[in-house]
UniProtKB/TrEMBL annotation:
<dbReference type="InterPro" id="IPR014780">
    <property type="entry name" value="tRNA_psdUridine_synth_TruB"/>
</dbReference>
<feature type="domain" description="Pseudouridine synthase II N-terminal">
    <location>
        <begin position="115"/>
        <end position="264"/>
    </location>
</feature>
<dbReference type="GO" id="GO:0005634">
    <property type="term" value="C:nucleus"/>
</dbReference>
<dbReference type="Pfam" id="PF01509">
    <property type="entry name" value="TruB_N"/>
</dbReference>
<dbReference type="GO" id="GO:0005829">
    <property type="term" value="C:cytosol"/>
</dbReference>
<dbReference type="GO" id="GO:0006400">
    <property type="term" value="P:tRNA modification"/>
</dbReference>
<dbReference type="InterPro" id="IPR020103">
    <property type="entry name" value="PsdUridine_synth_cat_dom_sf"/>
</dbReference>
<protein>
    <recommendedName>
        <fullName>tRNA pseudouridine(55) synthase</fullName>
        <ecNumber>5.4.99.25</ecNumber>
    </recommendedName>
</protein>
<dbReference type="GO" id="GO:0006397">
    <property type="term" value="P:mRNA processing"/>
</dbReference>
<dbReference type="GO" id="GO:0003723">
    <property type="term" value="F:RNA binding"/>
</dbReference>
<comment type="similarity">
    <text>Belongs to the pseudouridine synthase TruB family.</text>
</comment>
<keyword id="KW-0413">Isomerase</keyword>
<keyword id="KW-0819">tRNA processing</keyword>
<dbReference type="GO" id="GO:0160148">
    <property type="term" value="F:tRNA pseudouridine(55) synthase activity"/>
</dbReference>
<dbReference type="InterPro" id="IPR002501">
    <property type="entry name" value="PsdUridine_synth_N"/>
</dbReference>
<dbReference type="GO" id="GO:1990481">
    <property type="term" value="P:mRNA pseudouridine synthesis"/>
</dbReference>
């Protein structure tokens, strides 16, 4: 009876530590009770439970250690990679989503990391992509945030589908229709014949709904507030190649390679006007940004993990000369390289675990 009572007490404790160990412990205690003294059985049962508790504690320590290792790896990431932006979120919203997934995977912020006075994760994107557009969005992490402007000075490539006969205030399908005109007499030859006018070094008026700023605020933000906004003056831009890929009235698809500061929405709108009609963007995909291509380099959201990004950084490092990583470039004022960076600092002394500064 003493052995049974002792076992009952031990098993009751083990339920709080590791419920899986209860059946095995009961069998072990029962077997030992038949051939040993109550004192020996109780000691053996206690040893089994202690071993189980140690195993559970060890597993917990391994889990904590694994998170700490991931946090260390995350904070050590440095370079430039690309992600696949879907339609819907803005580039800034997508950056926040990426940041949150990485911090969650690493278990940050946590007591382990708040013990360290300064641990900073720097992450940003270069080259804003419209919320209605999808495609390549280049991300800088660590020292890579200082490389974005220099690395994205090359050309970009887009596949754009325009809709004839309909103009909107945003110049794309997300806006309000402001004008409708006939398009039934427009032919494929008509479109192809005017594309040369939009190729090479040309002047372009940026759309009112854009990331360009007035008095420190984005024009798109001012427009949404109902403020009166004047169009920016026409500015020089470069179109390296422009071709018509498909024409099924009222829709036409363009393949465009352009330099920085170029707006596809303005191009489609201007083409509509040139055809004595009007037009707006229905679909827009950025297939290349600098040396980053949608097919080869852009990580889909299910690949937004610390390990996958580490591999992508290594893969993408071969795209640029090594000395580029040593350059420190300042983002230009609101232009084609709309640059957004976030600095997340884990600082125990201030009592804040997620201090964000946007530059």
């Amino acid at each position: 009876m003493e052995a049974t009572e002792a076992a009952a007490v031990v098993l009751s404790s083990s339920l709080q530590t590791d419920a899986v160990l209860v059946p095995e412990t009961a069998e072990t205690v029962a077997a030992m009770a038949t051939g040993a003294s109550a004192k020996a059985a109780a000691a053996a049962a206690a040893a089994v439970v202690a071993a189980g508790a140690a195993g559970a504690a060890g597993a917990g320590s391994e889990a904590v250690g694994s998170k700490a290792a991931l946090a260390t790896k995350l904070l050590s990431l440095s370079g430039v990679f690309a992600v696949h932006k879907p339609k819907g979120p803005t580039s800034a919203e997508l950056l926040n989503r990426l940041k949150e997934k990485l911090l969650a995977e690493a278990g940050m912020p946590s007591p382990e990391w708040t013990k360290r006075k300064k641990q900073t994760l720097k992450i940003g994107h270069g080259g804003t992509l419209d919320s209605a557009a999808r495609g390549v969005l280049v991300i800088g992490i660590g020292r890579g945030t200082k490389m974005l402007t220099s690395m994205l000075s090359g050309s970009k490539r887009y596949i754009a589908t325009g809709e004839l006969g309909k103009a909107t205030d945003t110049l794309d399908s997300t806006g309000k229709v402001t004008e409708e005109k006939p398009y039934d007499k427009i032919t494929q030859e008509d479109i192809e014949s005017i594309l040369q006018k939009f190729t090479g070094n040309i002047m372009q008026v940026p759309p009112l709904y854009s990331a360009l700023k007035k008095d420190g605020q984005r024009l798109s933000t001012l427009m949404k507030r109902g403020a009166t906004v004047e169009a920016k003056p026409a500015r020089p831009v470069t179109v390296y190649s422009l071709s018509l890929q498909n024409f099924q009235p009222p829709f036409f698809t363009l393949d465009v390679e352009c330099g920085g500061g170029f707006y596809i929405r303005s191009l489609v709108s201007d083409i509509g006007k040139e055809l004595s009609s009007c037009a707006s963007v229905l679909e827009l995909t950025r297939t290349r940004q600098g040396p980053f291509t949608l097919e080869e380099h852009a990580l889909p959201e299910d690949k937004w993990t610390i390990d996958a990004i580490a591999q992508s950084l290594e893969h993408c490092s071969a795209l640029f000369p090594a000395e580029l990583a040593l350059k420190k470039s300042k983002p230009k004022e609101s232009n084609e390289q709309a640059l957004s960076c976030e600095y997340i600092t884990f600082n125990e002394t201030k009592g804040e675990n997620d201090i964000i500064k946007t530059v």
